[in-house]
Fold:
Amino acid sequence: MPVVRDLRVLLRLTDFRRLLAVRLLSQSADGVYQVALATYVVFSPEKQTSAAAIASAMAVLLLPYSVIGPFAGVLLDRWQRRQVLLYGNLLRALLAGCTALLVLASVPDWLFYASALSVTAVNRFVLAGLSAALPRVVDAERLVMANSLSPTAGTLAATAGGGLAFAVRLVASDSDSAVVLVGAALYLCSALASLRMPRELLGPEPELVQPRLGAAIASTARGLVGGLRHLAERRSAARVLAAMTLLRFCYGALTVMVLMLCRYSWSDTESEGLALLGLAVAVSGAGFFAAAVVSPWAIGRLGRAGWMVTCAAAAAVLEPALGLPFAPLPILIAAFVLGLITQSAKIATDTVVQTSVDDAFRGRVFSLYDVLFNVAFVVAAAIAALMLPADGRSVPLVVVIAVIYAAVAATLARWKHIGPVI
Structure:
């Protein structure tokens, strides 16, 4: 298989292999932690969860970081990225352990959310740092290949971590705290794995590093303006980020719909609904893997913009066809298809941003990218909460999402022909 051959080529690169190990351990921990939170909030027997409650939880976890996220990118471009991966994962291990204690203590929800928010905030540093560091460990010719395999492998690791969390949760009752501790252990392993790389390997260049926190914070405002100006000058990157934000919005709204369907329409018990949700996550993860297999070939044939147009257009057709029956089998097929489409578009977007943005600005641009992801997901959850009935079946929501997919496809096709090559 071509993907196996490409992976063998990349794995011969020692630095890429070490960075990939950090990503796999870190994102598998993310999968464990996120599923632990979701099951605690949505599937606990004592909680009568609504779409509004799910949206509120997402807002609590993601929106506060969206305010400070761009500033994190400025710091990321001034701190050694290897150190960000090391200390970020160590801090997440500690904070996840605190979350486990809070679950055991049955504390008020606001305190639980504060702990989860802390882990999520640090997570944004780590993910942006991994993406910004990738061009430092592979050459330009292999960058598309690396963007196909590395983030997708991380997503699959997160899916595997989620599967582990589902398994522990289903086998052992009242095991939310134990699941969180598994995530903490994996965060610790990721931190230790980062020590295999030299401190200076992942950049930025030594003359840009400001080891003093005060100096870095003092330059944050100027750096943020510079990062935004740099992105404005890189029209290709700005365009694909806008398109990817809308695709993320669609994925977020459909995620809330599937959560509600699993909880109330397709199951009679919390454990049965949890099992269905786990199956949906696994099928979507298979779509992510398929994207890694297909995208390098498709981008080579259609170009980055052409592949994104194809993905969005396919989603516009398949999403209503599979979603409107509101039945488990078609929705599971949709989960695979939309996983493939969303991840394929992300592979193309990552490559455009990495090749269009200078290394000195790459960290803050990827932090902005991450913030757009968060805001799109939260806004999608809020709108879905307004449109979804208690059982999760909403024809208007499915139709609106299809229209957005079609609009993204048409706009990207237009940009492809009248603007810079994306």
About this structure: The domain at 7-418 is CATH 1.20.1250.20 (Growth Hormone; Chain: A;). The mean pLDDT is 84. The two ends are 28 Å apart (CA to CA).
